[in-house]
Amino acid sequence: MFVDKGLAERVAAEGARSAADVLMTVDIGNLIELVDRDLAQPVRSAVLEAAVPAPLRDAEGRWFSLSTRARLVYADPDLRDLAGLTYEDLADPKWKGKVCLRAGQHPYNTALIAAHLVRHGEERTEAWLRGLKANLARKAGGGDRDVARDIVADLCDLGLGNSYYIGLMRSGRGGPEQKTWGDGVQVVLPTFRGGGTHVNVSGAVVARSAPNRDNAVRLLEYLVSDEAQGLYARADYEYPVKPGAPLDPLLADLGVLSVDPTPLVEIARSRKAASLLVDKVGFDR
Amino acid sequence: MLQDLARPQALPAPARLRPGAWTLAAAAAALLVLAPLAALAAEALRGSSGLWPHLLAYVLPQAIRDTALLLAGVGILVVAVGTGAAWIVAAYEFPGRRILDWALLLPLAVPTYIAAYAYLDLLHPVGPVQSGLRSLLGYARPRDLALPDLRSLPGCILLLGFVLYPYVYLPTRALFLMQSASLVEAGRCLGLRPAAVFRRVALPLARPAIALGTSLALLEALNDIGAAEFLGVRTLTVSVYATWVNRSDLPGAAGIALALLLACLALIGLERAARRGRGYAGAAQRPRRMGRTPLAGPAALAAAGACLVPVALGFLAPAGFLALEAARRLRVAGLSDALLSESLNTLRFSALATLVAVALGLLLAAGPRLVPGAWRAALVRCATLGYAVPGAILAIGLMPPLAAVDGALDGLSRTLAGAGLGALGLGTGFALVYAYVVRFLAIAVGTGEAGLARVPRSLGDAARVLGRGPGATLAQVHLPLAWPAVLGGALLVFVDCVKELPATLLLRPLNVETLATHLYGEAARGTYEDGAVAALLIVAVGLLPVAVLLRVSTPRG
């Protein structure tokens, strides 16, 4: 069943009587929380360990990523020379009044800010956030696709959005209007200065009290099979975790992704500090 | 509002309905509501280091200001629109009045976050309205014609105001309709102009209903997370979610939610205190209904227009947009079978919760009339606290008590029968109905009180002198007179259950979807246009009782 916020609370309250075998969620912070609250159990599986690269899973087998998504720059097609753009550049005063973003307190942005924190430390992250805030064309809010729509509407020139929204919009699956938003922006794969592109994951854990543990492991093994990884790519426009699994053409067209090496666990551990910084600089005000 | 009137009318209770029976029932209801709040308080007491200094320094100054502005704006709008429209349809006859009378309730059926989605699509610079305007005026690019952005505090106030005004319209309209003509006619005889009759006679008499409706609308606005997040407004409730979700700080989130609850209580208490000692009951004779003054010409047009604007803004525009989207999706994708079972689930859970809430609410509202006492009135207030807590936080609070009951029953069955039971509370339909009742009992109690307050105390006294017990007096005297208000409350509870999202999402049984969770799933996947059919069905299911209600509640003669 689909739960948004509060998955951990529900399963924790159900305790040993929980009927859940597998808990799936997005955002590394949510995965780590399931582990921290002792709601996940370690799994040893040669299939999983072969399919999921080590940085995208727990060494003890308590969580596994199933797909990744990159935090990309959507930009006005008229902008030139955006190759080599970094996340740090977005705070450059030359973009004053030209940047659109969803709320800093949204987990997608909080994770990006946490990655900046791990890489550059608190002081520089605060300065970066203040610069970014000063560049906003409108209050931070809405969703990632609103960034594309606002660029099409000339409200701003560039902003951040997740990779799969580009697939959803450009494929026309969200309707003809969204196709015009997706086609109306150019997409850049930004990197951290001296690093790579920030990615987050969707993933799963086998529940601590799983009544059908063996089937739970089998489901996870299926989800990293070529067939299921292909589904993630084609149906959800996600990047598969399995090396060599084919990308959807809409994603492949964006260019080659160079993933930032910052360990996901460290990003998850810094998300609270990132969230506090967002409040401190009044980012969402 | 009722216990203000209750004390002087008390008669010694005869033996038929023992005060003990009512007290027991009220205490049980209060306990059901207090259990999740106690769980939240226990959570908050686990402590959250450094939370309050952080909030005080960086969050509260701005969040309190924005929340206060939002509530003030929405409050002014819902009172003006809700009361104004109620008075126009109650006091005047004009072409279209019969339709507008019930059409004014329609925005009730539109969840605020759906209205926000729809309006942003409609009014965005690349949306149909502005694109049309540009091509009409000959502008080529959006930046050539910059209009104010809906995504702002004023935008949020307008949107919430025009969607939430029915919370005021419904109880106030019921009250105007129950109102005896003699007071209004006395005002007219004393030379008051129509506007002055409204301002000096009708409005003060309607104050309990207006206060009730406004407090419901404001709590709805305060606990809204979808529309506020979408429109970029940072209320205190948004901070509750940020603390919980992004910082895994549930104790902190519970603490903020409880502090908010106390602030709400203080505000509601202030309004009640300001009304203390005033009576709002009518005369003991069967009241003659106020006749509607016929309007003609420009006055009729103005009245119809004034009532049409809220219907158009609060319902026709967002629902019409959804209908267009739904029609387009249906042509492409067809109707999914799941929607039927989801509609039935929605109906079932909502109807059950409404029955329980209205029965409990009536019992609680009538209690202080039948068996007075200050601490009994306090029990009633305790039972209405659930409405002032954000849905998701309330759901989190409900989990420990439900799990504890499950654990106890499970253990008992293991000892007695040698086998466990599995979950009986958490993750069953019971948990969902329980959550709805806790969350919306305040509406049923409030509307019950508002209805009973109109019943002259001499009628109850007469019944009692003639030998009826408190229960019989309630059933045979009070209930028939308060019926429109009670039904209005039932409608509000039902529609709120249908729309309820965060608690439903968290507490529903495995593999059970309602229309609201289906819609949210689509919205979360970013394919909310696919959810247009579900959104429309929410609106349709919410409309069912509106039709029933109006047939029953329009007084004859």
TrEMBL record, chain B:
Domain ABC transmembrane type-1: 64-271, 343-549
Chief location category: membrane
Keyword list, A-Z: Cell inner membrane, Cell membrane, Membrane, Transmembrane, Transmembrane helix, Transport
PANTHER family, sorted: FE(3+)-TRANSPORT SYSTEM PERMEASE PROTEIN FBPB 2, INNER MEMBRANE ABC TRANSPORTER PERMEASE PROTEIN YDCV
Name of protein: ABC transmembrane type-1 domain-containing protein
Family stated for the protein in its record: Belongs to the binding-protein-dependent transport system permease family.
Pfam families on file: BPD_transp_1
Membrane topology: Multi-pass membrane protein
Protein's organism: Methylobacterium crusticola
Domain of life: Bacteria
Spans through the membrane: 68-90, 102-120, 152-170, 253-274, 295-324, 344-366, 378-399, 419-437, 532-552
InterPro entries the UniProt entry points to: MetI-like, MetI-like_sf
The organism's taxonomic lineage, starting at the top: Bacteria, Pseudomonadati, Pseudomonadota, Alphaproteobacteria, Hyphomicrobiales
Location(s), subcellular: Cell inner membrane; Cell membrane
Keyword Transmembrane helix annotated: yes
